[in-house]
Amino acid sequence: MVDPRTGQMIAAAPLVRTGNRSLVDFVKSLVDPLLAVGCLLGSTVAWGYPIGPAELILAVITFSLIYPASIPFRQRIRGLIRHIAGSWALVVALLLLFGLAIDMIRIFDSNVLATWFFATPLAQTVTHWISPFIVPRLIAMRGEQVAIVIGANTLGRTMARQLAADPFAKTRVAAFFDDRETPRLGHVTEAPICGRIDRVADYVRANRTDQIFIALPMAAQPRILKLLDSLRDTTASIYFVPDIFMLDIIQGRVDTMVGLPVVAVCETPFHGTTGVIKRLSDLCISAAAVVLTAPIMLLVALAIKLTMPGPVLFKQRRYGLDGQEIMVWKFRTMKVQENGPEIRQATKDDDRITPLGRFLRRTSLDELPQFFNVLQGRMSVVGPRPHAVAHNEMYRKLIKGYMIRHKVKPGITGLAQISGARGETDTLDKMEMRIRYDLEYLRNWSLRLDLWIVYRTVLQAFRDPNAY
C-alpha cells in the first residue's frame, strides 16, 4: 500500500472491499465527513447565522471530499494528529482555492470559516482518540466470537493474526485444521493445530464455534465441497477466504452481478459514487488552476511565439481510459514535433529542447494546458502519466501488467512522479518502477491520496532533478 505522508510503497496484504460492508466499517467511513459537516453547521449557528442554501452546498461538497474516511482509528496520538491535520489541510486548501477562483468565499463569514477550520480537526482527533476505548466495549456487549481456520497456510495464519490484532473484530481463533503433517506446517503460533480437515465437523459439534474461515487454495475444491457438506447440520457462520495472494489484485472486491456472486480481481477504482467524486474533484481543481494560472499561460504562449517559429501548443497522440487514443496538449518546448510511430524520449541536455523549453520543462509550466484536457474529460488531475502511443506499444510487450494503468484516465501528475520516477526511462527497470507506482495508485486510491499527490507536486514543481 502507499504511505500518504511520503508517497512511498509499503508492504501490505491485498485489499478487498466487500459489497456488503460490516456496520463498524460503514460507521468508520462516515465519522470524519459527518464531523466536518456538523462542525460547519455548528459554527454557523454559533455565530448567529441561519443555515441557508450556501451552507448546505458547502456541507455536501465537504462530505464528498472526505467520504469515505480512511484515517485509521488505531494509532498513536502524535501520528493521529499529523494524519488528521494533513488530511484536513488538503481539504481546506482545495475549498479555499475553489472558493477564491469562483469568488464564492465572500458569501461566508470569516469567523464562521475560521471556527470551522479549527473545530473540525479538533473534533476528529478527540473522536479518534476515544473510539478505541469506547467502540470495542460496545462491540463486547455482544460477547466474544470464537472462530476456527481451515488451512494453516500463509493465508490462514494471516487471517488469524489480523483478527487477533483488531480490537473491533472481538474474535478469537481457537484452532487450525490442516491435512499436512507437522514437519510441513512448521511452527504455527497463532492457534493450536487440532487435526485434519475431516475432523472439523466433529470439533464444531463438541466445541463452541461461531465462525469458520476456509483458507484453502482454490485447487482444493473437492475437499472444500466435502467439508461444506459435513457442516450442514451446524450453526456456525462459514466464510470462504479466497487465496488472492497469488494474484495481482487491483481494486479487489466482492459483489453481485445479475444475482450471482462475483469476485473482482482487476477493476477501476472509479465506479459508482467514487467515479462521481473523482470527476467533481477534477473539475474543481482544474477550473481553479486554469483561473489562477491564466496570466502565466498567456505569458508563456507569448514567449514561445516570440522565440521560435511554429505553433505554441504541442499536441501528441497518447493512450487514455481503456486504451483509447486521446490528444494531449502541452506548451511546445522542442524545435521538432514528433508524433509518429517512433518517438525519442527527451534526455538530459537534449539538443531538441530550446532554452525557453528547458525552463518550462524544469518548472513543469509546459504541463499547464493539460488542465484543459481535464475539463474536456480526457484526463484527470492525478493518475498514471500518459505515454506516447509509440512508447505504449513497445512497453506493453515488455512489462507484465503495463496496460492495467489504463483502467483510469491518465493524469497531469501521479504517485510515480512525486516518488522519484519522473523523467527519462532509459532502462527497462526505470519504466517498471514507474508502472509499479501506477498500479499501487490504482490499488489504494482515495481522494485524500489524490490531494496529497497534488500537494507534493506543487512543492516539487521547481526542484525536481528529473524534470528536463
Between the first and last Cα atoms, what is the distance in angstroms? 29 Å
- Please tell me how large the radius of gyration is: 26 Å
- Whole-number count of domains: 3
The side-by-side strand order for the widest beta sheet comes to 3-2-4-5
What are the secondary-structure elements, in order, as H or E? EHHHHEHEHHEHEEEHEEHHEHEHHH
Taken from the alpha-carbon principal axes, the silhouette is: globular
- Total of DSSP H or I helical runs spanning 4+ residues: 15
Unreliable runs, pLDDT <50, ≥5 residues? 1-7, 10-21
Mean pLDDT: 82
Helix content: 40-55%
Major sheet: size, sense and barrel closure?
Answer: 4 strands, parallel
- Helix/strand structural class: alpha/beta
Strand segment count? 11
Portion in beta strands: 5-15%
Describe the protein:
This protein starts with 15 loop residues before the first strand and ends in an 8-residue tail after the last helix. Helix content is 47%, strand content 12%. It is built from 15 helices and 11 strands. The protein folds into 3 domains: 125 residues, no CATH class; 120 residues, Rossmann fold; 188 residues, no CATH class. It has a 4-stranded parallel β-sheet with strand order 3-2-4-5, with helices on one face. A 3-stranded mixed β-sheet has the order 1-6-7, with no helix packed on it. A hairpin with a 5-residue loop joins strand 8 and strand 9. It is an alpha/beta fold.
